[in-house]
Amino acid sequence: MTATTGRVALVTGASGGIGAATARLLAERGMRVVVDYLHSAEAAGRVVAEIEAAGGRAAAIPADVRDPAAVDALIERVGALWGGVDVLVHNALTPYAITSFREMTWDELGGKLDDELRAAFVVTKAVLPAMTAQRWGRLVYLGTGLSTRPRAGMIALGTAKAALTQFARYLAQELGPDGITVNVVAPGPVTDTAISHVLDEDQRRRQVAATPLGRLARPIDVARVVAFYAGEDNTFMTGTTAAVDGGMSMH
Known about the structure:
Keywords: Cell wall, Oxidoreductase, Secreted. Helix content is 44%, strand content 15%.
């Protein structure tokens, strides 16, 4: 039995990519996992089936994490099933424009900022009461290396995730006395995700060449770092950002 056995983890945007890899890994480590999704019911069901086939426990529950009513309904369903959420992995990625600043509209930039922070705000507010009551909790947010290493066309995502990272730091300061850690995992380019297409083959080769470990990240590479932050072994790290990019950010 692991120390994490029985903890309840909510993974947003968990029907594929990093979210699905994280859901499977947390379940493997003994957590009961809520697989949140928005549109991909079939894919979320497959993640749950894989977890259960491996002996774990999981449930797929739909919710738009930007919508307070939908998130409240999700938390109510989780409460009836397993009780309060101990671990939040906020991975859900809201839509964003890929364009230059010159071509961008305020709605494209401001809308992404609003969606990003609204989703983090809403889902964090919903899970916080149970964590505060038990004086233990783990909040893990998925950021991006684009927040510190700009790439052409990615201003909306990079700016919004930079705001999310600072939001997490403020939470870490406020919630530390309640035994709640708050950290960000910031991947570089990741293969086999919904946004892998952002890199064309030439860009992919350049990114690999700039990575000391000689390849791009896979979803499981990111999931392993998330799982550390989410687990009992993380007793004294909060307000940090982990770059999961094979050393690319050293340059």
